[in-house]
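A student in our group prepared the protein record below, which I am reviewing. Here is the record exactly as it was handed to me.
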Amino acid sequence: MIVIAHRGASAYFKENTVKAFKEAFAMGAKHMETDVQRSKDGVLVLYHDYALPGGQNIKDTSFSELCKFEIPSIEELFSAAEDYSVKINLEIKNDGNLYPGIEKQLIDFLNSAKNVCDTSCFFSSVIL
């Protein structure tokens, strides 16, 4: 049986946050799913919904503003996962091509990453 920590340990901490990811790793999760979008200033961020609770779209919000909502970058996830052997499902949220080129941006990031996801990432909800 494969157990996947959906958006981290989301039963214990706000989903898709560094706290939720770290708790999932500490609890022994070997697989994790998270959602990838892009901030207004081009940072790959991890958040499920296309809009914040107040209705502002992720794509129209700067990364510094998103940090106020505990929305991490993909780099923060990789940093949190450095000491663990995990497989990460990166679901690209790109309905209607909201983020042109996000697939290539994510692949370029993964190719340049020197830690956990060198060979253990896979994508869902993406057309290449």
Summary: The longest helix spans residues 102-112.
